[in-house]
Amino acid sequence: MGGVCSSSTKGASAAQPAAPNKSVVPAVLSPLMIKKLTRWFEVVDVDKNGSLTHSDFVAVVANITAYPGCPKALKQELSEGFDNWWKYEVSQGGATHVSLDTFLAQAAMSRCYPENLPNSIKSVAPTASLLFQAMDRNQNGTITLEEFALFHESMGIYDAASTKLTFTAIDVNKNGTISLQEYISACIEFFFGENAQNGATYLYGPIEPKSWDLCRTATICFRGN
Question: What is the pTM of this model?
Answer without folding.
Answer: 0.80
